[in-house]
Specification:
Blueprint (H helix, E strand, L loop, with lengths): L1 E3 L2 E4 L3 H6 L4 H6 L4 E9 L4 E6 L3 E6 L10 E6 L5 E3 L7 E12 L3 E7 L7 E6 L3 H5 L7 E6 L5 E3 L3
Antiparallel strand pairs: 1-2, 3-4, 3-6, 4-5, 6-12, 7-11, 8-9, 8-11, 9-10
Amino acid sequence: AVMSGGKVLQVDTPAGLYETPRTRAVASFIGTMNFFRGTVRRNGSVMAAIEAEGLGTIPMTTAQLTKPDGAPVQIALRPEKFSLSPKRPEGGLAVEGRLRTAAYMGERSQYYLSIPGKAEPVAVSAPNTHRLMGGHDLSEGQALWLSWSPESIVMLDID
């Protein structure tokens, strides 16, 4: 359980609290999380989308997104749910960013990127299985592509 100010915020398993937090407070309690404001865009009875700051249009089904057209939403992605690439990935969800800083942490590196339309940097965590992007050291200001799967998006209640 996660509590704040004497109130229970969410009761779940450790994995549930980490992977599917319901609020920003719970998401921030364990680890790092990237937060994005967005707006629901419905285009029929089956399909919908979220227009998210910095991420663009994210297609979803109406079963995943029950809020009405125009409703504000808050979504979140953990740093390890992003993939980094020097080239635009084939298909899927992706946005180009610029590397601000990188921190080598042994088995993983933590990257912070600027993306258009978002004031705060986006945190990305990647394993050091192949020394920095296939042997190429990354430099500040370098263009990189962030990609993610729709399943990695967490819909949060607006606090």
